[in-house]
Design brief:
alpha/beta; 4-stranded parallel β-sheet; 4 strands; globular
Length: 138
């Protein structure tokens, strides 16, 4: 499957290793993840030279062409929120996962869209399992 993985970039990178493990596990299962570079430590440096218009057009195209969007939403991010809303508006299945101890926007947790799943996890292994289970249901 083609999976759009969304995570915080400018909002904070404290869960970078979690992002990396989720992306690595999904890639190991054979999924294509065009946004896998967003989990890497050098993402801010590599994306610095790109114009906002280029990033918007690239990311919207990736979302349009994905089979599902998986977002790690523990760290608030305007961009991730936008990506989630855009994906839902075009009927894409979306999984939002977050650390159990983190508060998540009620705009996400209160959304009744039937193609949206919001789950909490206590460790990265649980997050990976949730993502794999979600993808099996598509």
């Amino acid at each position: 499957m083609n999976i759009y993985f969304a995570c915080s970039i400018t909002g904070g990178r404290e869960l970078e290793s979690t992002y990396q493990e989720i992306v690595a596990a999904l890639s190991a299962d054979g999924h294509e993840i065009p946004t896998s570079h967003l989990a890497q430590s050098d993402v801010m440096e590599n994306e610095r030279e790109l114009t906002p218009q280029y990033v918007y057009e690239r990311d919207v195209s990736w979302i349009k062409n994905c089979d599902a969007l998986i977002a790690e939403v523990s760290v608030p991010s305007h961009g991730v929120g936008y990506e989630i809303a855009f994906a839902l508006s075009i009927g894409k299945a979306v999984l939002c996962i977050h650390r159990q101890e983190r508060k998540v926007s009620k705009m996400i947790t209160g959304n009744p869209d039937p193609v949206l799943a919001v789950l909490s996890y206590s460790n990265v292994g649980e997050a990976v399992l949730q993502a794999k289970t979600f993808l099996q249901g598509i």
